[in-house]
Amino acid sequence: MNDCKFGRIKNRILSAFLFTIILINTGFYAYAAPASTQDLKDAAEERKSLPIQSNQIENWPAGPAIGAESAILLEANTGVILYAKNIDRKMYPASTTKLMTCLLAAQNCQMDEIVKFSHDAVFSIEPGSSNIGIDEGQSMPMEECLYGILVASANEVANAVAEHVAGSMDAFAEMMNEKAAELGCKNTHFVNAHGLFNENHYTSAYDLAIIAKAFFQNELLSKIGNTPSHHFKATSTQPDDFIQRNKHQLITGEIAYEGIKGGKTGYTDEARQTLVTCAEQNGMKLICVVMKEESPDQFYDTVKLFDYGFANFSVVNVAENETRYSIQNSNFFNTSSDVFGNSKPILSLNTDSYLIMPKTTTFDQLDSEISYDTDEENEIAKIDYYYHDAYLGTATIDLAGKAPAAYDFTQNSSEGSLSEATEKNIIVVNIKIVLLTILAISVLLIAIFVVCSVIKNYNFSNNKGSRKRQRRHRKNRKDGPFFPSSRFNDFDL
Question: 471: left (phi > 0), else alpha (psi -120 to 50), else beta?
Fold first, then answer.
């Protein structure tokens, strides 16, 4: 055994000894006598009878009875709640707290930043709680620290990261609370970065799901949070070489389930088993949170809830089904994209907007509310959809984006001077309209010409016939039996 490892063990023993002496001298015991296994099973069985709020929605698919005191199934992309059981009740999160810890670290640090371990970071945690044995004075890159927190649930690493990000563990707790409020959490208050029990450290299933939603939007965190095991290699600032295995059985594959995207376990005597898990199937990304559960049911109840969600709900595109908010194409509200008249309406339903609907319902059964209160760029309005007051998702009415030109006539111009000179004064010519206008004018001119020709010919024919009749009449008069023409040759009439 090397000197470093021996020193670490000695420090741990000394810390545990001092902690025991303090407890004896103060007459205070950290934990009540543990409940028997049967008592815990009985309590879990009683929790199965607690009301499930989502089951009270008319015609909503009935969700399973589970032993967790609080649970939620949330679709991550839309925020739609599929299953709800005491989702706003304040609960102890235990190590699922570390989702927030890592979220703040990822948002405020580079992964190659070096995190140093102070005396307080190492020795302020409860003896025997989760750790990876990092000693005071050692250091690790931030990315390795995130593996230590999410894979090994190491409490001293969470402390060190908190000090690195905020300067102190207390300041980091303030950051955690500020971030929770920013995300929309209503029943959350953090006092530490690791989740060890404190009466003032709590959250709710709903709030924890909202935190997890933000966590799983980060690609790196999702990758690290879905790691079955990690090899910590020895370095000049951390001399131990070891492998840590994740305790989340859906991540390790001990309980097989398709589409697992990651998660975090948690346990204290007061919190019991807590679990956060994300899975994706059939276009839905579901986050499941169970709180105050008994092992190993936290995993099996999570599977039940995932099965319930994927089997009873589906993704429905709004633009393909909506008829009440129809935006008709009009020549007055078009964006011309090229000289051939290819255009689209200025306003349109976002074709990427979709709802999460029970498979037993149809689109025309939904209620909707339109709101023009939006600050998003290019958004004109939002339409929220409900089924018996249960939120199903939102569609947006957007300004049409600028379409790319079919041909780039300036691509060979030097330094883009032509493009820059003409960019401010662009005239869009619609060839179709021009051609139709020319054709209409041509038809009108031809019609006028034909009419004039007909009138002219008609008048000419009438005049010619009249002159012929007059000449015949005069001739008949001259050559008639009573007035022979030769008879008047000698008279000057």
Answer: alpha
pLDDT along the chain (493 residues), means of 10: 47 50 39 72 94 96 98 98 98 98 98 98 94 97 98 98 98 98 98 98 98 98 98 97 98 98 98 98 97 97 98 96 68 44 68 95 95 86 95 91 46 43 47 76 86 71 57 55 43 35
Give me the half-sphere count of Cα atoms (radius 13 Å) on the Cβ side of residue 443. 6
pLDDT at 431: 63
Query: How high is the pLDDT of residue 344?
Result: 55
For residue 139, indicate whether it is catalytic. no
Instruction: Give dist(CA 216, CA 222) in Å, integer.
Output: 5
**Residue 384 CB partners (closer than 8 Å, separation 6+):** 368, 369, 371, 391, 393, 394
Which has the closest alpha carbon to 345: 331, 325, 363?
A: 331
Indicate if 95 belongs to the active site.
yes
Residue 123's region, left for phi above 0, alpha for psi from -120 to 50, else beta, is alpha
Question: Of these residues, 98, 179, 264, 292, which one is catalytic?
Answer: 98
> CA–CA distance from 377 to each of 394, 400, 401, 443 (Å)?
16, 11, 11, 47
Instruction: Say how far apart CA 455 and CA 464 lie, in whole Å.
Output: 15
Catalytic residue among 54, 95, 204, 343: 95
Q: Is 98 a catalytic residue?
A: yes
| Inter-residue long-range contacts of 293-298, CB under 8 Å, 24+ positions, other chains counted | 293/44, 293/66, 293/67, 293/68, 293/69, 294/40, 294/41, 294/43, 294/44, 294/67, 295/267, 296/249, 297/44, 297/66, 297/67, 297/68, 297/273, 298/68, 298/265, 298/273, 298/274
pTM: 0.74
Among candidate residues 327, 328, 263, 325, the one with its CA nearest the CA of residue 298: 263
| Candidates 54, 70, 130, 153; catalytic one | 153
